[in-house]
């Protein structure tokens, strides 16, 4: 029996499996497909995802295969994030198939069990665990775990079996994707505003398959059956309608259909069932957010689920997974839908687009949208006080007794981190009951101010508590906070990482 079963070995499921294993939890990933398709939908990682991989010490694997690109855009209006305060002020262009392979390699290194083909087809939860029915080669099996996480994509079986609502807005357009050969290919790549027409939108760029082009068409106002098969003729007709030619397309290697249906689960959690990635939210791929949202879901959930499974934190900690990610995703989906409204050419959308272009010229407009699109501005409502609360921690270089180290290096093991720049005994004393779970690092104070994307510079605190997902859980209001430096620290430690050791031992006795 595994502690946690994950349905779906896509990017979200694999990232979550890695997070759980880092925390010492037994994980079984069940994947419906016998082998990877090798096909990619996503083509890149935004800056915050690159940071997440850096926080776990595996970013070099992705940087070695991808290329840093200025890919942050809002409805293809370029956003400048090069001077954002991060080590990675760029997106990394890398095919989804490679992202999945690199995450799978990492998961196997960490000892994740991966079973395929194995399709989750039923579930039943009770007070002590969850029973999962799985279709395997020619039969079915029943497996038991403490929790099941559905990372099984937009049409999630787990979501449906758990009866979780998936409200949102229906499709208003039809989008087709094909990796095809072209007899008479256009000399120019079209990957941006040049593809806008009044009745649709198209893109034409290099496919991941050598010698093929990826053609994407979007027909506004046309809603088709999402299960209807896509043929090269369907794609060709859409191309002729929008562009006036199909460049002699033939010999498709892959054909697909997607839409702007935009939905978000009404709860990321139903008892012992949790949902993450596309299983929890679907939307049009404007500005390439889906896979990146899934990675952030995984990193937000991983340490919380691990702490609950290990009995360190109460089950209610999992409710914060819902409250934090639901709030953030609602905001992101709104942004994505606003982008879709800006696609049609020759309508009021053109006028609105010009307004946005002007706004982006202002530093604040660029910073705000750049923060959302790069996902560097992801923040959670953890409480009031220091302006960094709930935001992702900046990757400072710090000087500790063990030498120079970066904050993200200290997060490689996915453990909570208390950075104390004050050297005052009350901080150490407050953290005493959590030394089994929280790494305390005493560092020399460096800068008076810390730089954050979007909110800008903030006063450096005297001490900061960082969750394993890299978000700030607690900080003193300033470097020279009046009274006790450790005020509120024990509450924050208890809230996020469970009761102090003595209390836990007492409760267990
Ligand atoms: C055209 C297009 C372009 C895109 N471009 C981008 C982009 O540039 N950037 C970006 O961030 N996102 C992009 N996306 C979105 C991105 O591809 C998805 O958000 C991402 O794949 C979601 O990952 P996931 O792991 O949650 O789900 P999936 O990738 O859908 O993985 C789910 C896995 O679960 C398995 N599964 C399904 N049912 C079961 C079951 N019952 N039991 C066991 N296993 C099961 C599936 O076989 C699959 O392997 C794009 C999407 C499209 C359509």
From TrEMBL:
Q: Which UniProt keywords apply?
A: FAD, Flavoprotein, Monooxygenase, Oxidoreductase
Taxonomic superkingdom: Bacteria
Cofactor needs: FAD
Which Pfam families does the UniProt record give? FAD_binding_3, Rng_hyd_C
Gene3D superfamilies membership = 3.30.70.2450, 3.40.30.120, FAD/NAD(P)-binding domain (3.50.50.60)
- Residue ranges of every copy of the FAD-binding domain listed in the record: 2-334
GO MF annotations, alphabetized? FAD binding; oxidoreductase activity, acting on paired donors, with incorporation or reduction of molecular oxygen, NAD(P)H as one donor, and incorporation of one atom of oxygen
Q: What is this protein called?
A: FAD-dependent monooxygenase
